[in-house]
Amino acid sequence: MALIKFPTKAVNTDVVNPFINSIFDNLFNDSFITDRLVTRIPAVNITETEREFLVELAAPGLQKSDFKINVDKNIISISVEKSEERTTEDKLYSKKEFSYNSFTRSFTLPEIVDHNNIEATYENGILKVKIGKKEEAVVAKRLIEVK
């Protein structure tokens, strides 16, 4: 397999009409537009300890009441739906902005999960969901004597 690098800009395109090229470059590189085109899904860290699983979800700017956590059989779903409306009225104009933020993350739980031992906390923009394991799944440690 060979990797081929394609140029990001065609050769001599600025010679034809530099004004048009700069408008399109600015339009498609504008953060106002790209922020709204890109779907934002929060990053997740999942760790496993001897007694539990820990799911950490980075979701700053939300409230505890914005989260909805559902467990259905062996699937846990974490979702948020938040809408906000801001209105600014000045002398000669009025400005109204709508903001809508939603996402859903779902994870399959293993058989060893204790469904009655699930807790969630939200601090400093991070949602932490602790999912306990069943007692029989926790491996007992002991020293084996060699005979």
TrEMBL record:
Q: Which CDD domains match?
A: ACD_sHsps-like (cd06464)
Source organism superkingdom? Bacteria
Protein's name in the database: Hsp20/alpha crystallin family protein
PROSITE patterns, per this entry?
SHSP (PS01031)
Span of domain SHSP? 35-147
The record, for InterPro entries, names:
A-crystallin/Hsp20_dom, HSP20-like_chaperone, Small_HSP
Query: What's this protein's family per the entry?
Result: Belongs to the small heat shock protein (HSP20) family.
